[in-house]
UniProtKB/TrEMBL annotation:
GO terms for molecular function: protein disulfide isomerase activity. It holds the Pfam family Thioredoxin. Its main location: endoplasmic reticulum. This is Protein disulfide-isomerase.
C-alpha cells in the first residue's frame, strides 16, 4: 500500500497559517500594475528573462515563488511588500523579489529551485552560489528582523550581562560559544557552524560565561552552550569536530515532546518535528479537558523512554489541529486520538485512554497494528462522465474493472487542476460510447493512494492504466487532442465483464 503524500510545506502551511504562514535596480523596482496609479512597488518582479541578471547584481536576494490563485500567497503578498519597502534603505542592501511559478514560462525556474508548494521563499546569496530555504516569520516585522540578522555576522559577541540576558530571553534556541580568546581552530569551527546553521538558530560568542543567564558561570571554555525553552534548558558540548557539533545541535534542539497549540512560540518546533526523518507519534487531545494532565504525564514518560530510538513525539491541542485532522483523515469524534506516521503508512488509535498509549505503541512496533486508510465516502451514484475514485473504491474502478483507465490525481485548491477539469469532461464525453475506457479522478488530498506504482509529487498528475494492468504516467500537453491521442495509442481491447456496479 502506498500512502498519499503532499509536499511537507503544503501540510505545514495548512497547520501554521495563522502565524506564517522588473529590471535590475540597486535600490528597488519602480513599476506599476496600473499606469494611472503611480504606486511604488519595492518587491522586484522577476521571470525567466531577468532572473539570472537580477540575482547576479544583488549579493542578497529573497525570492517568493508564488501562484496567483494561492490563498497563502495572497496573505503573504502585502507583508512581503511592506518588508521590502522597509528594507529598501537597509545597508547592506536586501532585495526582495517574486516569481510567478505558476506561469508556464517560469516552469524551468520552478524546477531548478525545487518548488513543490506555494509560497516557497528562497534566500539567494552571492549571485546564486548559495541557495537556502527561508525559515523565518511571514509577517512584515518578522521578515525584516530575520533578514537583517541574516546579512550581519553569523555570530555576535556578548560583552555584558545585559546583552546576554537580551539574547537568551527564554523563548528561542540560542547557541553560544565560550572561549578564552577569539582565535584558534576551535573558534574557527564554531564560526563555520554558525554560518552553516544561521538560518535556524541565533549564535553568539563570549569570553566570559558569567555574562550568560544560565549554566555554570565558572566555565572558561572552549565550550558550546546551547540554550533552549524546553526540557533541560541548558546543554554544554565540548567536541569541536564540525560534524559532531552539527549532530549535537540537531539532537538537542528537538523537544522530547513537541507541543502544538495556538502559541506561535511553539510553531518553529512543530516545523522541526515534521521535518525530522523519524517515525512520528502524535497525540491529539483537548488541552482544556480534565483528563489532559494524565495524558500529558504518561506521554512524557513514554517519550523519555523512547528518546533516541527513531521515533519523535508530539502532543497537539484539538483547537490548533484542524489542518492535521484533515491531512490524516481523522475526525474530532476520534479525540483523544493517537496517530503514528512512519513515512510508509499511518496508524490511528481513536478514543484512546492514557493507559492505552504504551500498549498501543508496543503493538505498532511489533507490527500488530493495521494501517489506517483515509478515504472519502464511496459515491452512492457515480454515473457522471468523469468517475469519482476514492480510496475505498480505488481497486474496484482502476484495477478490478479490467478497463483502460485514465486517472487524474488532483487537489481542490490547485489552479492547474481547475483548468484541466473541463478538458477531462470533454475527453470523457468523447469516450462515452467506448466500453473499454474509463476517465476518472481522485482528490489526492482527501484520499490515500492504496496501490503501489503511482508517484504523485504535484497536481494534477495523470496516469493511464491499460486493460492488462500496465501503468503509464502522462507528461504531455494537457489538451483534449493530446490526451485523447495518448489514450487511443495505449488502450487495449478487453472483453472482460466490468465488476463495477451499474450505477457507474
Amino acid at each position: 500500500m502506498a500512502s498519499s503524500r503532499v509536499p511537507i510545506i503544503v501540510f505545514l502551511f495548512s497547520l501554521l497559517t495563522p502565524l506564517y504562514i522588473g529590471g535590475i535596480s540597486c535600490v528597488a523596482a519602480h513599476t506599476t500594475k496600473d499606469s494611472s496609479s503611480q504606486s511604488k512597488e519595492f518587491v522586484l518582479t522577476l521571470d525567466q528573462s531577468n532572473f539570472t541578471g537580477t540575482i547576479s547584481y544583488h549579493d542578497f536576494v529573497v525570492v517568493d515563488f508564488y501562484a496567483p490563485w494561492c490563498g497563502h500567497c495572497k496573505k503573504l503578498d502585502p507583508e512581503f511588500e511592506k518588508a521590502a519597502s522597509i528594507l529598501s534603505s537597509n545597508n547592506p542592501m536586501i532585495a526582495l523579489a517574486k516569481v510567478d511559478a505558476n506561469d508556464e514560462k517560469n516552469k524551468d525556474l520552478a524546477s531548478e529551485y525545487d518548488i513543490k508548494g506555494f509560497p516557497t521563499l528562497k534566500i539567494i546569496r552571492d549571485g546564486g552560489k548559495t541557495i537556502q530555504d527561508y525559515k523565518g516569520p511571514r509577517d512584515a516585522e518578522g521578515i525584516v528582523s530575520y533578514l537583517k540578522k541574516q546579512v550581519g555576522p553569523a555570530s555576535v559577541e556578548i560583552t555584558s550581562t545585559e546583552e546576554g540576558n537580551a539574547l537568551v530571553d527564554g523563548d528561542n534556541i540560542v547557541i553560544v560559544g565560550v572561549f578564552p580568546e577569539f582565535s584558534g581552530e576551535k573558534f574557527g569551527v564554531f564560526l563555520t557552524l554558525a554560518e552553516h546553521l544561521r538560518l535556524d538558530y541565533e549564535f553568539a560568542h563570549t569570553l566570559d560565561a558569567k555574562l550568560l543567564p544560565r549554566g555554570d558561570s565558572s566555565v572558561v571554555g572552549p565550550i558550546v552552550r546551547l540554550f533552549k525553552p524546553f526540557d533541560e534548558l541548558v546543554v554544554d558540548f565540548k567536541d569541536f569536530n564540525l560534524d559532531a557539533l552539527e549532530k549535537f545541535v540537531e539532537e538537542a534542539t528537538i523537544p522530547t515532546v513537541t507541543v502544538f497549540n495556538l502559541d506561535p512560540k511553539n510553531h518553529p518546533f512543530v516545523i522541526k518535528f515534521f521535518n525530522t526523518p523519524n517515525a512520528k507519534a502524535m497525540l491529539f487531545v483537548n488541552f482544556s479537558s480534565k483528563p489532559f494532565g494524565a495524558f500529558e504525564s504518561k506521554y512524557q514518560d513514554i517519550a523519555n523512554e523512547h528518546k533516541g530510538k527513531g521515533i519523535s513525539f508530539l502532543i497537539g491541542d484539538v483547537e490548533a489541529s484542524q489542518g492535521a485532522f484533515q491531512f490524516f483523515g481523522i475526525k474530532e469524534d476520534h479525540v483523544p486520538v493517537m496517530v503514528i506516521n512512519d513515512d510508509k503508512e499511518k496508524y490511528v488509535k481513536p478514543n484512546v485512554e492514557p493507559h492505552h498509549l504504551e500498549s498501543w505503541l508496543k503493538e505498532y512496533k511489533d507490527g500488530k497494528v493495521t494501517p489506517y486508510v483515509k478515504s472519502e465516502p464511496v459515491p452512492e451514484v457515480n454515473n457522471q462522465p468523469v468517475k469519482v475514485v476514492v480510496a475505498d473504491n480505488f481497486n474496484d474502478i482502476v484495477f478490478k474493472s479490467g478497463k483502460n483507465v485514465l486517472l487524474e490525481f488532483y487537489a481542490p485548491w490547485c489552479g492547474h487542476c481547475k483548468k484541466l477539469a473541463p478538458i477531462l469532461d470533454k475527453i470523457a464525453a468523447s469516450f462515452a460510447n467506448d466500453a473499454d475506457v474509463i476517465i476518472a479522478k481522485i482528490d489526492a488530498t482527501a484520499n490515500d493512494i492504496v496501490h503501489e506504482g503511482f508517484d504523485v509529487k504535484g497536481y494534477p498528475t495523470l496516469y493511464f492504466k491499460s486493460a492488462s494492468g500496465k501503468l503509464l504516467q502522462y507528461s504531455g500537453k494537457r489538451s483534449k487532442d493530446k490526451i485523447t491521442s495518448f489514450i487511443k495509442k495505449n488502450k487495449e481491447k478487453t472483453n472482460q465483464q466490468s465488476s463495477i456496479k451499474e450505477e457507474l
